[in-house]
Amino acid sequence: MVEVDEKTETVILVVESENIPYDDVSDAITSMGGSIHSIDEVEVISMGDSADSSTQTDV
């Protein structure tokens, strides 16, 4: 038997910052009754030698 939660909603959340504390974001979502099921994409921009350097990864 498969159970389906009729109150489930999907939300796409974009978080942009120079330093994102994952645990703080996860705790905030959990405190509002939500949960993280997947992280679909992570983009990292290196501010080192080349300001144009970026990496995008589908997870």
From TrEMBL:
Gene3D superfamilies: MTH889-like domain. This is Uncharacterized protein. InterPro entries: DUF211 (IPR003831), MTH889-like_dom_sf (IPR023129). Pfam families: DUF211 (PF02680). It comes from the Bacteria.
